[in-house]
Amino acid sequence: MSTEAAATTTTTAEAPKTPLAKLTARLAEITTKADYKEMWGVELDVSPDHIPSQVVLQKFLRANGNDAEAAEKQLASALTWRKTMQPGKLTSQQFDKSKFANLGYVTVHKDDAGKEMVITWNIYGAVNNNQATFGNVEEFIKWRAALMELGVQKLKLSEVKALIPDGGEDPYQMIQTHDYVDVSFFRMDPAVKAASKETIQTLSMAYPELLAHKYFVNVPFIMGWMFGAMKLFLAPTTLRKFHPMTSGTTLASELPTIVATLPREYGGKGPRLEEVGQQLAFADAAPMADKTEATKAEEPTPTTAAPVAEPAVLATTDKAEVATDKADEATPAAPAAAVTAAALEPTAEEAAAAATKTAA
């Protein structure tokens, strides 16, 4: 065999064959171009033996249907975003108490086998003023990213010892609960819509494949048919992540292994969420900010509305499955039109119609 032929044979034999191997081979260049290598608390290592790094790459691959090229693009974007935003540092930053207190929590539970389950909670009925909470989109995204990052930290991805099984269940994911208590589903708030659109785009890019299931609780009975209609549009694997229920206490029946510590308002035997849930740090607004918000409060504005996403047509159900899986961390909206939004919005599987808090 000629030297040239031998070299060709060697090159072919050494070429990475699996999507994971291909992405791993590109990792050094990806992190060099981004000038950043931290992802979800993991310092990305080019060695295929570094399990935490491999798990991170697996998640980006899963979010892109095992397309190594697409996964590379998303990973590069996520690294660039993290370098700029520094979400890990945001978890220790103080946020405006009047805008964000009691809107989001993180809890960690253990089942009988000792396995930890991380839950992030979004309490939409706790929003007091849409303009104050959602009006400054950059501030809202920082708070939302910090809450997501807080949950991700609880997963301890830097300590994982095993890869995600090929074609199997991902053991390194969280549960997300969206509580719509005291929220109705009739009007749209422009401030919420604007904040939602950008938040969805950002978080779906930066946090793929981190949510195992999404529970929508205290959803009005009349809206239940919307979730049923989603079966006409979404793939079964995506639908299995959705769990709408009219009562918050029903959540306990969905999570029986952690009933002992699940908050009592969700059917568990533990303390109330506000007693055990971890929030981000808060501080009172600066005097000038207080004055600004007071002025805004005098203006007539709609009350609480959950985030909404702009629709974009999907070509196929398979594409919908991949695209919606990429939107695990999208800011969820009220399920009033979940069927329409979930079927049409490729970056927000739980997107829905506007919802406003019922007037007292």
TrEMBL record:
Q: Where in the cell is it found?
A: Cytoplasm; Endoplasmic reticulum membrane; Microsome membrane
What membrane topology does the annotation report for this chain?
Answer: Peripheral membrane protein
Indicate, by first and last residue, each region the UniProt record lists as having compositional bias (Low complexity): 300-317
One Pfam short name: CRAL_TRIO
Q: Which family does it belong to?
A: Belongs to the SFH5 family.
Provide the function of this protein: Non-classical phosphatidylinositol (PtdIns) transfer protein (PITP), which exhibits PtdIns-binding/transfer activity in the absence of detectable PtdCho-binding/transfer activity. Regulates PtdIns(4,5)P2 homeostasis at the plasma membrane. Heme-binding protein that may play a role in organic oxidant-induced stress responses.
Q: Under what name is this protein listed? A: Phosphatidylinositol transfer protein SFH5
**Organism per entry:** Akanthomyces muscarius
